[in-house]
Amino acid sequence: xxxxxxxxxxxxxxxTHLPYEPFQVRKGDAVxxxxxxxxxxxxxxxxxxxxxVDTPFEGIQSGEDLNARKCDLAAAGMTITPVRAKxxxxxxxxxxxxxxxxxxxxxxxxxxxxxxxxxxGVQQGxxxxxxxxxxxxxVTTVQFEDLALLLTAVKTGQVDAAVNDNGVLFEYVRKNxxxxxxxxxxxxxxxxxxxxxxxxxxxxxxxAVIASAKSDGSYDRIYKKWFPA
Length: 229
Ligand code: ARG
Description:
The chain is α/β, with parallel strands linked by helices. The chain folds into 2 domains: 11-95 and 190-226, Periplasmic binding protein-like II (D-Maltodextrin-Binding Protein, domain 2, 3-Layer(aba) Sandwich), CATH 3.40.190.10; 99-184, 3-Layer(aba) Sandwich (D-Maltodextrin-Binding Protein, domain 2). It has helices at 34-46, 57-61, 64-67, 127-135, 147-156, 166-175, 200-216, 218-226; strands at 11-16, 25-27, 30-32, 49-54, 73-74, 89-90, 95-97, 99-104, 119-123, 140-144, 161-165, 179-184, 189-191, 194-195. Strand 2 (25-27) and strand 3 (30-32) form a beta hairpin. Helix 1 packs across helix 7. It is globular. It starts with 10 loop residues before the first strand and ends with a helix. 42% of the residues are buried. The protein binds arginine (ARG). Arginine (ARG) binds at residues 16-17, 20, 57, 76-79, 97, 126-127, 147, 165. Residues 11-229 form the Solute-binding protein family 3/N-terminal domain. Pfam families: SBP_bac_3. Keywords: Signal.
């Protein structure tokens, strides 16, 4: 609770894990994406500038980075889960997601069952990894540290398919027509922005910005920018 205190004065420091296009991705010297634009609205409201820290997802989702004051908030296409909510506090949900599967174009791997005896790539520390561990029976899961390594493994045939969030997979397929989203699993996820447990001052600012962005059209503008129809 209490007053709003930032880790670095004049900055709103964001922990994220690159690349997670179109939510956060490096473009030249800058990091751009849906989450970056959303957090920029928060920074603007606080009259500071956003500074991005690229760090492994494990430390983000465990609350470790926030607790160590590595950043003020975490915006990483991160799903709100009950386990995570024990170690960090979440803003209101700002984006709907579901797990999905990607494989090479024309692949017959259209369900987890079809992958029996095969290799399925997952991203370390993610809800997709948890989903695959629970639901893929008789499938060898192969763990990758980030999304780029995971998707390259699909392309090169190092794995037969991979599981990750629908938004990033559809973006990848759009740019890599030799791949295909072969299944969606309807896991009903929602992304939230993480803050240190008890940092209600910042969490309330974030919630207020999400609410006003949804009502004043800026959310739609950002959505259309990163998810062109
Ligand atoms: N939504 C998934 C989760 O929360 C994946 C997020 C991965 N994000 C990232 N920036 N690497 O587990």
